[in-house]
Design goal:
By secondary structure, the chain is an alpha/beta fold. 31% of the residues lie in helices and 25% in strands. The protein has two domains: 72 residues, 2,3-Dihydroxybiphenyl 1,2-Dioxygenase, domain 1, CATH 3.10.180; 83 residues, 2,3-Dihydroxybiphenyl 1,2-Dioxygenase, domain 1 (Roll), CATH 3.10.180. The longest helix has 13 residues.
């Protein structure tokens, strides 16, 4: 995994650049460069589009980057800004294997698990690592089944598709 944006060169976007009216803007203390290196190494369809430095070889102060197809802006704003769980990034996972893979990458980077599939990375950003099956189960029209799945989820740290399915199946 690249440790610095020095190791990651902005990639020319072969597709026409899609401009969104709304782009998440993440304000880091002084860890923007390390965060971008981790995010772009962890998620496919990721790239650094632009990175501005302080001086020619100084630290990255701002950047435009893509993580999993989502464009972000980032800035090193100093200690005045912190993240909270009131804002999180949702990762839609195909299955348990994908949940496990992302969870392992975050833990290896020093992330702190919370509950209900939430994990806070070493830069302070909270992520929800969610299997698609969970969303399918809670979309059921039977409120008892939904309640059973939600109850099971509330007891979990990392979401477990088999246990969620078991709770769903056991509900009447």
């Amino acid at each position: 995994m690249p440790q610095h944006i020095h190791d990651i060169q902005p990639q020319p976007n072969e597709k026409a650049r899609e401009v969104s009216k709304v782009t998440p803007f993440l304000m880091f203390n002084d860890q923007l460069e390390a965060a971008i290196a981790f995010y772009t190494a962890t998620f496919p369809d990721s790239e650094v589009r632009n990175a501005a430095r302080t001086g020619q070889d100084g630290p990255v102060t701002s950047a435009e980057f893509v993580v999993g197809g989502q464009t972000f802006m980032g800035y090193n704003g100093g200690p005045y800004f912190t993240f909270s769980q009131g804002f999180s990034l949702y990762v839609d996972c195909d299955d348990q294997a994908e949940v496990d893979a992302y969870w392992s990458k975050f833990l290896a980077a020093g992330a702190q698990p919370s509950q209900c599939g939430w994990i806070t990375d070493p830069f302070g950003v909270t992520w929800q690592i969610v299997p698609r099956r969970f969303m399918e189960l809670i979309a059921d029209t039977n409120p008892r089944k939904v309640q059973a799945v939600m109850g099971a989820m509330m007891e979990m740290v990392k979401l477990d598709v088999a246990a969620l399915q078991k709770a769903y199946d056991a509900a009447e």
